[in-house]
Every structure is written in structure tokens, then in C-alpha cells.
Amino acid sequence: MAPYRTLSRVQFGILSPDEIRRMSMTNPPIEYTELFEEGKPKMQGLMDPRQGPADHNSRCFTCSGSYLECPGHFGHIECRYF
Fold it and tell me: Which SUPFAM superfamilies does this chain map to (predicted)?
């Protein structure tokens, strides 16, 4: 286990739409509201397997990590109207 350390500062920021698209693991973006298809996480769905394992028995499509190893990867939804 790593030793505890005191944080000296925390910085928050907002990513631009281009940065979000560039860093997103879901290209093409999430576009379906369904979570699963035939019992498996649906590609381009809210539980897209490129974002990390959906359960303890899955592996991540992005880093191949297990449920305990994968930190998770973010995706994005293109909002066409606002």
C-alpha cells in the first residue's frame, strides 16, 4: 500500500469540446440509451465496453484490465440540439 501524503493543491478545469472528443474512448460517440444488447454491454450505448468493464467477469476493451485493474475511461455524447 502506498504511503499517505498531504495534498498541496487541487486544480479543476473545463475541457473544450475538441479536447473531449480527442480524449474520449467512444469514437464514434455514445448514441444509444440501451445499456445491453443480447446480455452484453452495447457498443455506443451508455455502458459501452470501451469505457471499462461492466461487471466482475468482463475485461476492458480499451486497456484489457479487469474490474479491479481498469481505472475507467470516459466517453462522450454529442448534443446536437440545445
Answer: beta and beta-prime subunits of DNA dependent RNA-polymerase (SSF64484)
